[in-house]
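Troubleshooting: if your tokenizer reports a length mismatch, compare your output against this known-good record of 207 residues.
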Amino acid sequence: MMWTKRVKRLAHKQPARLTRMPRRAISRGQALVETALFFAILMLLVAGATDIATLLSDHLTIVYAAREGARIGSTLGDNATADCAIIGAVQAALGGNQNIALSQIIIYKADQNGLPVSASYEEAYPGSTQCDITTNTPTNTPTIANWPYNLRGNTAFQEDSLGVELDYQYTFQLNLLGSGSFTSSDHAVAPIEPTLNPTPTPAGSGG
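Known-good structure output:
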């Protein structure tokens, strides 16, 4: 009998009520999640803007390097030290940029559109080539040697146009898009300065 009464008492016992979290705690947790998501998106935008800004700046650097090389090459023309000076100008303009890895430096004869006339008028050097100032020669031999300095025309009104093409691999700093790096090239062209031979004036003829 005692055991039966105890069972009945337990059967009539009401279940415990479920406790609910305060609304303030729920709101606080939701705010933390939203803040974390917003912060993550903000960091992605900042990283993307940084990569794009750095890419634009480095592109200007590579264009400037190509122009410096073309300017030096147009000034020296058929001088024996022309290639070394061009390479030195390019490397100096890049200044050891960590995002740009040169793969090739091409010196070529340009047509009226600034493009190579053909592969028969090119001098191509590995991107790691430097100018040895003690010997005034490049530290690497050209992989393509079809347009040496002595074939570059600098006769007045018939001078050649000299182009400098820089092939390179660009690596993003933050790698936001997951691509990591890409390859590209830029070039610049300048006409070779002509050598003008002054006409001798006969002795005794004054102006």
